[in-house]
User: Fold this.
Amino acid sequence: MSTRHLDLRTFDELQTEVMSLIRHPYHRAGQWSLGQNCQHVAKMLNQSIDGFDFQIPWFIRIFSGWMKNRVLKSRSIPNGIQAPKLFLPDDQTPDADGVSQLLTAIHRYRHYTGPLQPSPLFGRLSRSEWDQLHLIHASHHLKFILPVNSPREGENPASD
Assistant:
């Protein structure tokens, strides 16, 4: 099943999207439910405040500047990248629980005024870079949640 196009530009848009998704039936174009996707994104938001307990191997970090620029410019993350186990969602995360965790993490992140932690892949990031990477990451995961009757990526909604 194909995904949908989603490019969230603000945390308000992210909150609106999540609240819309929880209210309507959906299909999954990926392995995770809405709750699992939201829990995963929440974990990343929280870790950017609390810190990461691991670092990506140096031979991957060599390309981190190029990768960061590519993600920020294209506003997309390639499919199929395996997340570290620390960031994997629980096997059974009810949608309401995952959405609640994400909304709490968004609130916490938006109101946090201290320094953000270095990314295990990209190193030190500005607040603006962290904001955009979080929004791109959320867009990447939520594009796999297809509201019933929504057009999929590449489909013309008028052709249904």
Remarks:
- The beta strands are 26-28, 145-147.
- Confidence is low (pLDDT under 50) at residues 156-160.
- Helices lie at 11-23, 34-50, 58-61, 64-74, 95-111, 127-142.
